[in-house]
């Protein structure tokens, strides 16, 4: 018999009895790509857990080898489904993990589970799952546990700096699982740097695009490419091919503003999206405040120069009747 907790739906105890109970619970495993059980969101395709398709990754290797590798990371990718299972288990096979020293182990190659709380009407964090050893490429783990066997909405957020080659979801035997899509089918797309990809949040669910997707109950796709947000036209063509984009957020200053990429590429990057999405709303963001700008005068001069460059591009698009705004990220905090 399942041990009882007082007025708690989610187990937060380290009791050996509870661990043994859930560890021994009989489950059925299903591929995370099984569209009859789970809804895969946050990427361009339903065939892999990568952010680009395999063909798209290969097509940009000669343009930017960094993006070729990073597009196979699963930042922003998620599964949504409804189930009455009291336990959620996973079997995972991960490819190479990027060695980002200032990031926790859990956000680089861990999974987060959130569930919808009917009382607060919000998604709440339940649990995370990581391998015992960061060198392990394959592992099994209990990702979430609940006391009651009842219907609930589940989100599983994927690792931010790893690629997931294979994922199987285990649910309690004789339980159901059905995919859960968003009612709002329009998408928010964000393009940028390591700041967007998730460096250096403590959990995958705290990546800004994942936070936004839960807050707006809408698919928010993450195309942050750590150190490689250079606004190439070839990248714009791949991302702009996504259907039903409502908003595009560009936060590439921290990479593209280090060289001439921002000035050379931004206008063509934007125009490519407008060619595919006539009524698209675009938000252009400048660089977040950094104290190093006060130490090195050159950095502050570059910041001011490229701020003016961004504003020129925004005003030029506005004069063409486009729905575009410049957001001062420098003061956002």
Structure description:
There is one protein chain. This protein is of the alpha/beta class and 333 residues long. It is built from 11 helices and 15 strands. Strands 2, 3, 5, 6, 8 and 10 form a 6-stranded antiparallel sheet that branches. A 5-stranded parallel sheet has the order 12-11-13-14-15, with helices on both faces. Strands 1-9-4-7 form a 4-stranded antiparallel sheet, with no helix packed on it. The radius of gyration is 21 Å and the shape is globular.
How would you summarize the topology of this molecule?
Layout: H1 16-24, E1 27-31, E2 39-41, H2 54-59, H3 65-70, E3 78-83, E4 87-97, H4 105-109, E5 111-117, E6 122-129, E7 138-145, E8 152-157, E9 162-172, E10 177-179, E11 187-192, H5 194-197, H6 208-216, E12 220-224, H7 233-240, E13 245-251, H8 253-256, H9 261-276, E14 281-285, H10 292-295, H11 297-319, E15 323-327
Parallel strand pairs: 11-12, 11-13, 13-14, 14-15
Antiparallel strand pairs: 1-9, 2-3, 3-8, 3-10, 4-7, 4-9, 5-6, 5-8
Short description:
This protein is α/β, with parallel strands linked by helices. 28% of the residues lie in helices and 29% in strands.
Which features would summarize this protein structure in a list?
333 residues; alpha/beta; 6-stranded antiparallel sheet; 5-stranded parallel sheet; 15 strands; globular
